[in-house]
Request: fold
Amino acid sequence: MTAPAGLVAQVLTVREIPEVTVLPASGWTERLEWSGSPVSSWTALTNPHPITNEYRFIDPAQGSQVRLYRAVPVGWDPASLLRPGASNEPSGSKRPPGYVWIPPGRFTMGSAEGEPGRATNEVRRTVVMTRGYWMSAREVRQSEYRSMMGTNPSGFPGDEHPVEAVSWAEAVAYCQRLTAQARERGELPQGHAYRLPTEAEWEYAARAGTETTYAWGTSDTEAPRYAWHEANAGFTPHPVGGLAPNRWGLHDMQGNVWEWCQDWLSIPEAASALEPRGPEAGSLRILRGGSHLDGTAWLRSASRLAFRPDWSGDCAGFRPVLAAVGPAGAAELRLRMVAELTLSGSPGGRYRIERTRSPLATNSWATAVELELGTPALSVWTDLSENAQSWSYRSVRIDGSGGETGGGGGGNPGGGGGFTPGPGEPAVGRPPGFVWIPAGTFRMGSPETEAGRRSNETPRTVTLSKGYWMSDHEVTQSEFGSVLGRPGAVVDGPNHPFQSDWNDAVRYCEALTARALAAGTLPEGFVYRLPTEAEWENACRAGTTTRYFWGHDPQWLEIGKYAWSALSFGSSAHEVRLKLPNPWGLYDMSGNLWEWCRDGYQDLPPTITVDPQGSTDTTRRSIRGGGYFEGFNRSRSAARSGLKPTERLDLGIRPVLARPL
Ligand SMILES: [Ca+2]
Reply:
């Protein structure tokens, strides 16, 4: 759609503002903070809802000053730990060849009092690994090391032998090159890197679910089956993987060569810990597992050794892990710039914002959104589409007043253009801001296969025998005030939706009916009322059968264009009509505020397929559409909930003008 010839278009100035996406670590709750510089203090962004799922925040406060963002882990839910029998291995990532997935879990680190050979620095404590990681099943071989680094420092040459005589710093450099190589090949999982294991990661993997002295039990006589050590190695390293693995498939965790870990040496406290890491600084780096030179006391799962990071010896090598970057609870942050437009004009005027990537090509302008200005006549709209900063924008007035336009409002009877009634629509009586929804048959509820569905969404085919008009937006605070003359419990702006309990929502509809009757504008046989759930869902779906009216959107890549949803976008509801409408022109059907329906909340009887109405149990009333603060799944077309009619917070009104029930 482009502006008709002769229309006055106003070029809009665009401001680029950041959108921050927080991807919390599994089971963690995060808080988003900003700062003007990394050395100054950090301030929590407005966020009453804990971030436990993907969260997007648009920061309109960023002006000339560049803001930095960080996510701070504030809590962890133990219930997020592995279900017994599941692996939690990321399904979207390819397991690197030769690596084993180490699942998240809980283990006892350190040794028991009285374990033979025990040292006092093997402090016993419960350690929780909140994330899994991949670990090399074998020590790094000399052939691998040479092809990556171009050198081979080993004292006992052999392609299949473990690389040894490498310092801690050289082992770290190897892991960094491995990371860079995987990234170049596009094989590096997002937010991950190859690195040395922390000491806890090493011992968790070495124990492989055991609490005994060794991963194979308590017996020294079993040691030669699993570990090259002083009794069987002949004081020389052996080709990697030659002996039996532990129960998680890892070879040579005990013996052959010592293995460098990431951590500085410290004596931990006996308290339980989540994914502990060594101290920030130190002088000695940890080595674990014992070597071909050592007796069985050094093969114990808990035994610890440490050396200076520049030391090297022919009894010490390493094995990498592929693991999440950052400490436990570290969220992944993504930042991108989106376009913010400020539209000013006449109070109550309706405008269309158009955009193009080729501003000089006259036929290239396409509709981005339509807005109605309130008082003050100013509206801010954010374009969330990809690469929004490369668009040019302009606004066109479309309500036919002010002498600026030659029509083009399309379908609005006040718009001056030709009004064409929809199927079955009375020729007169459509109120401004309402859309005609024709009678018809649609599929209500969700199929068993729909991701995120709940059991109260029993699928059925429903026929609505009569058409109806529905408000294209949630009732605003200015609308509610002009009809009932009372401010809402939440007052944040005239174009923000009014937050209402069910009883006030009904009173509002009754007042609309009375006012239209007095003004002689009420179509015969129609009243304003709340929609039934069937009427609501039919209008929301707008002919679609997908999870959302814009498609299945499995990764929620599109939801930001259509819905204020998913724990995002600030602490309260947003002005109505800022997102793209559904195919029938209804705004905010998904997200922003939950919307009251007339029905009592209970499963609709599936036997009633024509004009179904809800239960007569009205202790709770149905609400639909999800809210700005809810998870993405609650904004699905089929999602339902119910609340006591006296609840008000985050609940909105969307009247229909329809036949009485
Ligand atoms: Ca080893």
